[in-house]
Amino acid sequence: MSSLLAKSWMLLGLGIAGLIIIGRRQRAALEKGHGAFIQYFELLPPPPPPPPKAPPPLTGLTFAVKDIFDIEGMVTGFGNPDWLKTHEPAIRTAPAVELVLQAGAKCIGKTHMDEFAYSINGENKHYGTPVNPAAPSRIPGGSSSGSAVAVAADLVDFALGTDTGGSVRAPAAFCGILGFRPSHGVIPTEGVTPMAQSFDTVGWFAKDPAVLRQVGHVLLQLPYMEVRQPRRVLIADDCFKMSLLPQDQILGSVLKAIHKLLGRQVVQMINVGDYIERNVLSIKSFRGAENLTGSTLEGLRDAMRALQRCEFKDNHGEWINSVQPDIGSDTAGRIKDALEASSDLVSLIHKIREQSRLAMNELLKNDTILVLPTVPDLAPRLNSKESTLAEFRSKAFTLLCIGGMSGCPQVNLPVGEVDDVPVGVSIMAKHGGDRFLLDTVVALYASVQEEAKIVFSNKNTLSVGSGKNEAAEAAKERGNAAFKEQDYPKAVTHYTEAIRLDGQSATYYSNRAAAYLQMCNFPQAEADCTKAISLDKKNVKALLRRGTAREFLGYYKDADEGYLRSTLPSCSSCGRFHRWVV
């Protein structure tokens, strides 16, 4: 025991010495305004094994940790000075931190966070706001603000954060970097100050997708498996409609990259809210109990918030009532709501969580990924009104709650800039599909960046990279495939999806008419052909198909017989035209 204590004191002594040395060396970065770190110190990995043994996988990499992780001999600050004053030093380092240390990475300090991890803004009344290196006039996002900024500013190779409601995904989107929220429960959260255990996860940031994957393999303790590519890509159409960002550029860039890697036929559009409404039946009971009139996703968001409040109250209500800490006004309002929260619906919300996970796992089975916006708009400006931030937060959580309530892994992928402010999209996989999702990021990342560079630099030709047009073409291709397989109802469904995305394409209406003809739905076929001809008077196939439809409807005079008889042979038996063009 005495030798262990001696080693502990020796390590602590080295840490303090490292704090002085690193603090002086890195102070220039702070003076430049990044403000990512609350404390500099040095935690060294074990010595690497001698050759010919391979070095640990993270050898040579540096990282930082959010001030929510325990480091032996240091007090975890949790973003609030009163918390810091009233808590004792940690007796051991958090297992997640130990994992990356043992894998060869070196920790150089702790980073700032929002008070009690109860915000996605990145602003802190007591310690200030870390400066977003990618957009200095905008907030960096939180609550893992310092960790995101440290990576975005190239101060470290990767950084650990936590994500309860969006505290890795949102700052990653704001700072233009990769941010990974793993499946809930797969990375140990011991030694991490809890916010709300039903949603707490250990996440991480990186700029390099290879580093993101390396860190993930260490934290997830994954065995080797063969790399798999997505077999189906779902685009959350209703979620993108919530976004105020230019989807022609953002979604177009992602779809072009997916088409290059996987082909067009893997892409499908989906209304996630409708899917959840059909498959998460308990959400209806919750909305009724709370008298909610909003959308299904808004109900899912409110359910998550309600459980988050109750768990935060259970974790920290007694300490807050006892200490009466000084709290920033924005966070104080949410904490007040938490302390007043009722637990009457907790069991119902847990049912919603369980059903959400089952539903999303079913949707994302067989190597399926879901693409959706990470946040609904650009990062808000610094010093925005609290009402503006509250509105943004509410809209953001309508998107972020899908991953939170289902517990599925989700990653923010940067996709260019709008008005010099980073934008990104999220990719989600089923619960437990973390390795698959990390591999997908590595496969897609370079192509997405290349396509985004082209699309965003050519603002006068946005229609070329239109996300809607790309998705419509993909739907048409799926319709063609179904038609060849003689699955005509399925073909109609896909062509209808293409028309919904791009209602100005004569081809989509004409193709759907062909499927309706095969189903003997002649009125609908005639209507589709008429629409196609109104869009393109030279669409020969539409003219031919309309003639066929009108003949079967008995409209012989209107069947465009003159044109049909001059281009196609008539029936040898009766002289009338019976053959339709498909």
From TrEMBL:
The keyword Metal-binding does not apply. It comes from the Eukaryota. Keywords: TPR repeat. SUPFAM superfamilies: Amidase signature (AS) enzymes, TPR-like. The keyword Transmembrane does not apply. Transmembrane segments: none annotated. Residues 55-438 form the Amidase domain. It holds the Pfam family TPR_11. TPR repeats lie at residues 472-505. InterPro entries: Amidase_CS, Amidase_dom, AS_sf, TPR-like_helical_dom_sf, TPR_rpt. GO terms for molecular function: hydrolase activity, acting on carbon-nitrogen (but not peptide) bonds, in linear amides. PROSITE patterns: AMIDASES (PS00571), TPR (PS50005). Belongs to the amidase family. This is Amidase domain-containing protein.
